[in-house]
Q: What sequence folds into this?
């Protein structure tokens, strides 16, 4: 068992979010708290920027560790948990209503990412996971009909110029309708016709998802979810690729915790061979391995073994996760700023190739002009550099 990473709040939060802990690990945490070695303010800051505060509270409660925290901190995070639980109850009811309308129109569906956790209770309660939206996959030929259903249910589209089709081969990167929301509620829905944007959508073809899906019910409404193996592939790809997460060195602990929960719950049903094959096919073997090793090293996951010292990429991600918190509290010594500049330089060097193989990717030499056009648009626009 590894030592507690008391000098890195990002890594320490991983330890706290682990769904399963040994007695020895729990004792480590208790002793560190009793010796005032845990800076709770730093952990809270990390939990907030990682959107994991409700999950942190839930896991502390399950592990019997709440008594170690200052009482005002327990009160604060419990209020956030309760608010998220109320929000998720509204999201779940809206999802059931949407599924009822889709089923009445004979439109099949697959619930993706957070929405699917309503079916398997992956976290053990409704309040743990923060959900930005509800992702629902429908057959491509049912997208327009699904749009009409959203309109009838009172949903309003959220404009997004980046999702406008241009009539070019590079439009193939798109994967969903505009986000839709119900006014005066937290409910936001994304209707998908592919699993995800650009490269991640190619990692898990929609035909594969429909073939491997598992039929379930949410309350009384029939629907389906991805197979455990496909869930893990989508989680890993979604955590590492769409917004340049891996090359930026930013790994969401919300996603990493879900990865760990999936491997704990469905370990015997998940094909590691398929997961590794996808990683190799898309040149992401190191990225996938780094992600899984963080789960193994700090969350006691056993999907892969983490042996020996930290790899370069683990060190990079741990540093940048900690650096976010240092910037947030206004404490960035010169040596940290220098190291951050080094990692940001590596990121900028990798960025053009990432753009080329991800949003710009289209098969065939004849599509090269369209790819080059989009590459220059992405690299030279103020909007893109704002994201960078």
A:
């Amino acid at each position: 068992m590894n030592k507690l990473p008391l000098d890195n709040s990002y890594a320490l939060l991983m330890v706290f979010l682990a769904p399963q802990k040994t007695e020895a690990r729990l004792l480590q945490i208790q002793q560190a708290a009793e010796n005032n070695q845990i800076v709770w303010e730093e952990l809270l800051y990390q939990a907030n920027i990682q959107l994991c505060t409700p999950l942190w509270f839930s896991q502390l409660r399950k592990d019997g560790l709440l008594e170690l925290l200052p009482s005002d901190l327990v009160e604060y995070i419990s209020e956030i948990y309760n608010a998220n639980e109320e929000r998720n109850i509204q999201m779940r009811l809206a999802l059931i209503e949407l599924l009822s309308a889709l089923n009445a129109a004979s439109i099949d569906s697959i619930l993706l990412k957070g929405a699917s956790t309503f079916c398997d209770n992956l976290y053990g309660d409704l309040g743990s996971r923060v959900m930005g939206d509800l992702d629902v996959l429908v057959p491509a030929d049912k997208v327009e009909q699904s749009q009409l259903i959203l309109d009838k249910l009172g949903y309003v589209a959220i404009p997004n110029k980046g999702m406008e089709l241009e009539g070019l081969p590079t439009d193939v990167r798109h994967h969903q309708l505009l986000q839709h929301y119900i006014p005066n509620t937290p409910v936001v829905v994304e209707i998908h016709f592919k699993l995800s944007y650009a490269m991640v959508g190619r990692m898990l073809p929609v035909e594969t998802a429909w073939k491997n899906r598992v039929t379930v019910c949410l309350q009384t409404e029939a629907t389906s979810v991805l197979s455990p193996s496909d869930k893990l592939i989508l989680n890993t790809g979604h955590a590492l690729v769409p917004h340049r997460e891996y090359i930026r060195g930013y790994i969401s602990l919300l996603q990493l915790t879900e990865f760990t929960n999936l491997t704990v719950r469905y370990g015997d049903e998940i094909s590691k061979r398929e997961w590794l094959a996808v990683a190799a096919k898309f040149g992401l073997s190191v990225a996938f391995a780094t992600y899984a090793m963080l789960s193994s090293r700090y969350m006691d996951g056993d999907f892969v073994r983490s042996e020996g010292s930290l790899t370069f990429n683990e060190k990079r991600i741990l540093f940048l996760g900690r650096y976010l918190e240092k910037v947030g509290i206004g404490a960035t010594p010169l040596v940290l700023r220098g190291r951050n500049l080094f990692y940001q330089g590596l990121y900028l060097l990798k960025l053009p190739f990432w753009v080329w193989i991800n949003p710009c990717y289209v098969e065939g030499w004849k599509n090269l002009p369209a790819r080059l056009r989009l590459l220059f648009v992405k690299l030279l626009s103020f909007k893109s550099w704002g994201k960078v």
In short: The chain has one domain: 9-379. The domain at 9-379 is CATH 3.30.460.40 (Beta Polymerase; domain 2). Strands lie at 110-112, 134-137, 156-157, 180-181, 188-192, 214-218, 221-225. The chain has a mean pLDDT of 94.
